[in-house]
Amino acid sequence: MKKNKQSVPLQLIYTVFVEEPNDFYFHPRGVLFVDKEHNHTLFCSDVDYNFLLRAIRKFPYKELELGVEFNGHQFELKNITAEMTSKYGDAPKAMKEILKDLYQTSPRQYSFLRKVFEQDSAVSHFTP
After folding, report:
1. Region of residue 40 (left: phi > 0; alpha: psi -120 to 50; beta: else)
2. Out of the domains of life, which is the source (predicted)?
3. Would 32 disulfide with which of 14, 27, 120, 125, CB 3.0-4.6 Å?
């Protein structure tokens, strides 16, 4: 029997921060969900998707949490798992609520999430 992807609990939740070359500030550029089977789902702008994914795949999460330099940019993952799972649980259906929470805390900084709610693109992660 094939396991339903929708039932695999979330294990890690990160915000992906990037510092541009010659800049002094990290800016949120993505939100990364990793389930207990190590599958990941990345929410970011379409333009940033491959850029962020290359860095995420190249380094272990623990290294990214400490910060790494890659292609002239600084990358850092901020682990928000405990905070978000205490509010919303670890079921995959919590992803949309977590994204909404992040967006509402700072719509300007998390503007790349706007499309998730306008186009309802997150629904595809919850439907069989």
Report:
1. beta
2. Bacteria
3. 14
Amino acid at 36: K
Q: Tokens 């069989």 identify what position?
A: 128
Domain residue limits, the chain: 8-125
Element (H, E) at 50: helix 49-58
pTM above 0.70, yes or no: yes
What does the DSSP 8-state code read for residue 4?
A: P
CB 51 within 8 A of CB 59: no
- Distance (Å, whole) CA 102 – CA 109: 9
CA atoms within 13 A on the CB side of 83: 10
Residue 52, classified by CB atoms within 10 Å of its CB into exposed (0-12), middle (13-18) or buried (19+), is: buried
Determine how many CB atoms are found less than 10 A away from the CB of residue 113: 23
Report the C-alpha gap between 3 and 106 in whole angstroms.
Answer: 36
> Could you tell me how many helices (H) and strands (E) the chain has, helices first?
5, 5
Q: Note the pLDDT tens digit of each residue in 15-45.
A: 999 998 777 788 999 999 999 999 999 999 9
